[in-house]
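Progress note, sequence design subtask.
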């Protein structure tokens, strides 16, 4: 059965990824009213996301875009640690909603530990270079983890205002778990933004 789903995904034409700059801007105007954006080159995807129409996205290190995504019902799947970037970046977009996983990773103590490790990297390497720690975390979920647009300084700034951002976005965040059904995801993606 896994072979059939693999063959099916290989036979479908690959869509060009949506490119975001580090600030979440893009020059792509989304045609689909309800779009789920997933990171390019994911190792594995939750079975609950299998039935939803998806488009891949990437973060480009050299791109500087001026146009924010147009006002559409866009849902972005950002597995941890990309969720830190997504929460920080898309809090200003009321029509953008997030699907996040590993809710415990966003706890105060885990984020404090992550910040301490990033501060140590900043002390050794500076703030305007990529983070080896975050690259290792990204390589756990992505086969191509060249998210060099996000520097140590960026990763350090993301958790700064996280508690108020999470509170303000609570209606626009769906926490993905092992028990999430495909129907719940479809309902979230197809429902209007709050």
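Output:
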């Amino acid at each position: 059965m896994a072979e059939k789903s693999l063959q099916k995904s290989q036979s479908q034409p690959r869509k060009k990824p949506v490119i975001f700059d580090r600030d979440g801007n893009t020059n792509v105007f989304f045609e689909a009213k309800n779009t789920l954006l997933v990171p390019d080159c994911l190792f594995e995807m939750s079975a609950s996301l299998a039935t939803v129409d998806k488009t891949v996205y990437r973060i480009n290190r050299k791109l500087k875009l001026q146009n924010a995504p147009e006002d559409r019902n866009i849902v972005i799947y950002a597995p941890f640690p990309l969720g830190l970037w997504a929460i920080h970046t898309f809090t200003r977009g009321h029509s953008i909603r997030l699907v996040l996983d590993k809710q415990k990773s966003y706890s105060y103590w885990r984020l404090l530990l992550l910040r301490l490790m990033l501060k140590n990297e900043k002390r050794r390497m500076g703030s305007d270079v990529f983070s080896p720690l975050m690259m290792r975390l990204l390589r756990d979920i992505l086969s191509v983890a060249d998210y060099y647009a996000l520097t140590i300084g960026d990763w350090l700034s993301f958790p700064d205002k996280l508690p108020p951002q999470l509170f303000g976005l609570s209606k626009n965040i769906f926490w993905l778990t092992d028990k999430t059904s495909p129907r719940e995801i479809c309902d979230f993606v197809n429902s209007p933004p709050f």
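Residues 1-13 have pLDDT under 50 and may be disordered. Work on this subtask will continue into the next period as scheduled.
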